[in-house]
Amino acid sequence: MEKIFSKLDKNVLLHTVHKLSDTSQSRLDLCPEEEYLQVSTFRLAEGRTFRPHQHVKCEKVTDITQESWVIIKGKVKVLLYDTDKTLLAERILTQGDCTITFRGGHNYLCLEEDTIVYEYKTGPYFGQEKDKEFIDV
Questions:
Q1: 71-82 pLDDT, tens per residue?
Q2: Domain ranges of the chain
């Protein structure tokens, strides 16, 4: 797992990139506990289970949309930006890889036809005008 921090404030985590090949034999939390979006990865042995459960209603307040992409099939290039909109990193993601943006910006370029991704983000969604600020490149 690669953690990408702001160059403006070295203590601010902006992005996490996790490659499928880095998945370990045990649970790995890809997000700090205090972040709104929580993503973990773990390798499961046949027959592994856990106690059935449901999540209880619990009021939570968020002040930013956080987003994650998981590549199901194909290949994408992700461009990751700092909070001042400067480009920090470019990574190539393939099947099973995941990127998480806590703050800062991102962009994705599809590199293969028929690429499929799952996108997850915190909600609720109030529309583009309230949710996004575009980066001119």
A1: 999 999 999 999
A2: 1-23+66-122
Which two structure tokens, joined as six digits, stand for 47?
């027959």
Alpha-carbon dihedral sign for residues 89, 69, 130, 15: negative
Partnered with residue 99 across adjacent β-strands are 17, 69
CATH of range 1-23+66-122; options 3.20.20, 2.30.29, 3.40.190, 2.60.120: 2.60.120
Residue type, 53: H
Q: What is the DSSP pairing of strand 28-29 with strand 75-81? A: unpaired
Helix (H) or strand (E) holding 130, with range, is: helix 128-131
Q: Name the residue with tokens 């972040």.
A: 35
Q: Each residue of 24-54: pLDDT tens digit? A: 878 899 999 999 999 999 888 899 898 999 9
Distance CA 13, CA 22 (A): 20
Rg (CA), the chain: 16
| Interatomic CA distance for residues 47 and 92, integer angstroms | 33
